[in-house]
Design brief:
Length: about 450
C-alpha cells in the first residue's frame, strides 16, 4: 500500500501525517461477531459499524406515494398511516427481533406539535408516550436529548429521534394525528439471542458526556498511538509519497495536520416567515424625500429558482427582480436600485411586485428600504412579511400589505450567508488548499483513492 500527496496549485504545503497501522495480523484476526451491535453499543463501539451481521436486514416504513408519484408523498397524508387505532395513526409495526434506529418527520415547516403524542411500544411495553414536539426539543429528558433527538432549529427543517431501541418480539410506533411526512428506519434480526429490550431508564451517562466532543475529537475506541509519522512540505506542483508498506495489514487511522488552515465562520441560522404567489403583492414604504434614488432589498427562499417579477412604484414600472441563484438552505437577498425619477421628492411610495415567471413561485420574507441621500445610504423602512408572529402581522398592517392569490405562507429556518467574513483571504487560500491538493492511496497495486484532501477528510471546507 502507498499513500501519496500531490499539490498542483499555487501555494506551498507544510504538513505532518500520522498513520496507525496493523501489520501482519489479518490472517490471525478473529472473524466478525455474528451477533449484531444493538442499543447504545451502536455508539460506544463504532469500530464495528462496517460489519454485516448474518440475518440482519435494514428496513423502513415511510409516507412515500404508493401510486408512484409525488402528490401523495406526505402532502395529502393519504399513505402516512399504516392503519389507525384508538391511540391514533400507526407509523410502523413489526414482529420478531429487531431495533428501531431512526424516526424522522416534518410538518408545518418542522413543527410537529399537531401530530400530538408519539407512542413507542416495544415487546408490549410502552417505553415512550409524550408530545412529539416536546420529545424532539429534549423536554422528555435523558436519554431523549440532543444529539440523539433534534428539532427543526438543530436540523434542516425536520425533526428526528436517533436512539437505538432494540426489541425481542415486537414494536409499534404511533402518533395521535396524521404526521404527513415521516419515516421509521429499523433493523430486523434472525434471532433474539443476545438482544435486550430498550429501557429508557437505563441512561448511558458516559456516552452522553462523550457527545460533548463529537465532531471535534476522535472517539475513545479509535484513539491509539500512531506507529508511523512523517513531516513534509510541498512547493506548488510537487508531490510526495508519505508511506509505502509491503506487508499484509490494515490502516486503522490516518491523521494529516495542516497548519494555518482557516475555515469560514459558522453561518448564523435565522428563522423568518413569509408568503408566496404567482400573481402580485403590494405594500407602502417610507423613504426620504431628499433621496437621489432608493435601493429595495428582498429576502427570499431560493428553493424556487429564477424568480422574476416586475417592480412598480406608484403604478409605474421602475425595476425587476431577477431571482439570483443561491444555495439551498441559505437565505438569499437581492437588491434593486429604483431610479430617482420614481422616488425623489416623495416621503412614501407604493411598491407592487407583478409575477413574471419562476421555477415554482415568487416568495418574499422581508424587505429593506434604503434611501440614497447625499451619497449615503440611509435605512428608512423595513417590511416583515408573514402571519407567523405578532411582529410580522403588525408590520403587514402598518405597510398596508396585500397579496393576490397566495399559494403558500409559513416559515423557514436557514443559514444567513456571511458575504464578507474576516480573514477572507486566508479562508480563500485554505479552500484552495483543500480543493486542489489530492491524496492518492494504492492498495495491492490498485489506485483505490484519488480525492481532494478536503473531501477525503469530510471537512466541509474546500
Amino acid at each position: 500500500m502507498m499513500n501519496h500527496l500531490s499539490r498542483p496549485g499555487k501555494i506551498a504545503l507544510a504538513a505532518s501525517t500520522a498513520l496507525l497501522l496493523s501489520i501482519g495480523e489479518l490472517a490471525q484476526a478473529a472473524p466478525p461477531d455474528e451477533n449484531p451491535t444493538t442499543g447504545w453499543q451502536t455508539y460506544t463501539d463504532i469500530t464495528r459499524l462496517p460489519e454485516l451481521s448474518t440475518g440482519t436486514q435494514s428496513r423502513q416504513f415511510s409516507s412515500f406515494d404508493r401510486e408512484g408519484g409525488n402528490d401523495h408523498d406526505g402532502f395529502s397524508g393519504k399513505y402516512s398511516c399504516l392503519h389507525t387505532t384508538d391511540e391514533g395513526c400507526v407509523l410502523a409495526e413489526a414482529t420478531g427481533a429487531g431495533e428501531i434506529q431512526s424516526i424522522w418527520s416534518t410538518w408545518d415547516r418542522g413543527d410537529v406539535t399537531k401530530a400530538g403524542n408519539i407512542i413507542i411500544e416495544l415487546d408490549g411495553t410502552v417505553v415512550l408516550n409524550a408530545p412529539f414536539q416536546d420529545v424532539v426539543e429534549g423536554k422528555a429528558g435523558a436519554p431523549f436529548i440532543y444529539p440523539f433527538v433534534a428539532d427543526k432549529m438543530q436540523t434542516s427543517g425536520g425533526v428526528y429521534i436517533k436512539i437505538p431501541m432494540p426489541y425481542r418480539e415486537s414494536m409499534r410506533v404511533t402518533v395521535q394525528n396524521n404526521p404527513f411526512f415521516y419515516h421509521v428506519s429499523y433493523r430486523s434480526f434472525a434471532t433474539a439471542d443476545g438482544i435486550s429490550t430498550f429501557d429508557p431508564s437505563n441512561v448511558p451517562t458516559d456516552l452522553l458526556e462523550q457527545t460533548k466532543t463529537w465532531g471535534t475529537e476522535s472517539p475513545a475506541s479509535l484513539v491509539n498511538e500512531p506507529n508511523l509519522h512523517a513531516d513534509f512540505s510541498l512547493a506548488p506542483g510537487e508531490s510526495t509519497t508519505i508511506a509505502t508498506l509491503n506487508e499484509p495489514g490494515m490502516v486503522q487511522a490516518f491523521t494529516l495536520g495542516l497548519p494555518g488552515l482557516k475555515g469560514a465562520p459558522a453561518p448564523e441560522r435565522m428563522n423568518d416567515d413569509g408568503r408566496a404567489t404567482k400573481d402580485s403583492t403590494s405594500f407602502t414604504v417610507a423613504i426620504d424625500p431628499a433621496n437621489e434614488g432608493v435601493t429595495l432589498t428582498r429576502r427570499y427562499d431560493p428553493i424556487s429558482p429564477d424568480q422574476k417579477a416586475r417592480i412598480l412604484v406608484d403604478g409605474t414600472q421602475a425595476g425587476q427582480w431577477d431571482g439570483t441563484e443561491g444555495k439551498s438552505g441559505v437565505w438569499r437577498e437581492e437588491s434593486v436600485e429604483l431610479p430617482a425619477d420614481a422616488t425623489a421628492g416623495k416621503s412614501s411610495i407604493r411598491i407592487t411586485n407583478e409575477f413574471i415567471s419562476a421555477g415554482n413561485d415568487f416568495n418574499e420574507f422581508r424587505y429593506f428600504v434604503d434611501s440614497k441621500v447625499g451619497g449615503d445610504m440611509i435605512r428608512t423602512d423595513e417590511v416583515d412579511v408573514g402571519e407567523g408572529t405578532d411582529e410580522s402581522r403588525a408590520s403587514e398592517q402598518a405597510h398596508d400589505y396585500s397579496i393576490v392569490n397566495e399559494r403558500w405562507h409559513g416559515d423557514r429556518t436557514y443559514a444567513r450567508e456571511n458575504t464578507n467574513p474576516a480573514d477572507a483571504e486566508q479562508i480563500a487560500a485554505s479552500d484552495d488548499f483543500l480543493t486542489n491538493t489530492h491524496i492518492q492511496i494504492h492498495a495491492d497495486g490498485q489506485l483505490t483513492v484519488d480525492a481532494p484532501i478536503g473531501e477525503f477528510f469530510g471537512t466541509g471546507l474546500g
